[in-house]
Every structure is written in structure tokens, then in C-alpha cells.
Amino acid sequence: MERVVDSVEGASPSREVVIRALDECYDPCCRDRKISVVDMRLIENIEIQGRDVRIEMMLTTGWCPFAARLLDMIEEKVGSLPAVDAVHVEVVWDPTWTPDRMSSDAREKLRLPLEKLMPLREARLRGESA
Predict the structure, then answer these.
(1) Of all residues in the chain, what percent carry a pLDDT higher than 70?
(2) What is the Cα–Cα distance from 11 to 5, expressed in whole angstroms?
(3) Is 79 contained in some domain?
(4) What is the DSSP string of 112-123?
(5) Where are the alpha helices (DSSP H) in 1-130?
(6) Is the pLDDT of residue 88 over 60?
(7) CATH number for the domain that contains residue 62
(8) How does residue 2 score in pLDDT terms, banded at 50, 70 and 90?
(9) Which tens digits make up the pLDDT trace of 39-61?
(10) CB 74 within 8 A of CB 22
């Protein structure tokens, strides 16, 4: 992936550059399908003040065992941008995340292939091994 770099020394990072960095951040449960925190629409707000970036994000559940790793990943990716001095990530609980927030691309990637699963279900109901 092409890395976008802000060209002016001391300049603030652009919102686009921050979003591209966030596009490389994956909940471990979604990494294999390449569904980022942007695709899941977990990012509620991005504030850029000078070279400091503040990100408000939701979690899909309050019981997410990977939440700490996800927050660290966001801080690492956004913090590695040349125009960023500090990253602050805050989890917000209002609004509550629901699957309706997902992008259509993420929704398609998570869709179960029912045409492949239905024959397996039918075989199991008949007591046959698949």
C-alpha cells in the first residue's frame, strides 16, 4: 500500500492520512477478512490539533478480549505517521455500536455463504455426516 506522507515539516497530519493509517488497523477477529476499524465504522470522531490526534472509537462489545491490543495498534499506526507527535485513543460508549454501522463491503465479507452451508445443515438434520 502506498504511504501518504505530509510534505511540510511541522504540518498537521491530514484527516485522509489518519484514516488511511486506521484502515490498516484490524480487530484480530476480522484481520483474516481484511475488515478494518474504518470498515467496521468503529471510529466515531477524529480531532487533529497541530500534530496531536485524538480518536474516539467504539467497541463492538464491552467484553472484547482484544480491546487493549486494538487500542495499541491504533496508537502505533497513527503514531508512526511523520506529522504526528501524539495519539490519544478514547473508547466511547454512546452511541452504541451495532452491525448496521458496518460498511457494505464489511457486511459482504462477513456474510455466511448459505448456499454452501445449507447442504451441510440438511445432511446433519438427516443424521448424515458431512
Answers:
(1) 92
(2) 11
(3) yes
(4) --HHHHHHHHHH
(5) 15-22, 67-79, 104-110, 114-125
(6) yes
(7) 3.30.300.130
(8) very low
(9) 999 999 999 999 999 999 999 88
(10) yes
The residue length of the chain stands at 130
Q: Quick one: pLDDT band at residue 9, thresholds 50, 70, 90?
A: low
What's the pLDDT at 3? 42
In a domain, 19, yes or no: yes
Do the domain assignments include residue 2?
A: no
Asked if residue 124 lies in contact with residue 89, where contact means CB atoms within 8 angstroms, the answer is: no
Of 81, 21, 22, 71, whose CA–CA distance to 51 is shortest? Answer: 81
Kindly report the backbone phi and psi dihedral angles of residue 91, in degrees, each rounded to the nearest multiple of 5, phi listed first.
-85, 130
Rounded CA separation 130/120 (Å): 6
Number of domains in the chain: 1
**5 in a structural domain:** no
What is the domain range of residue 33? 15-125
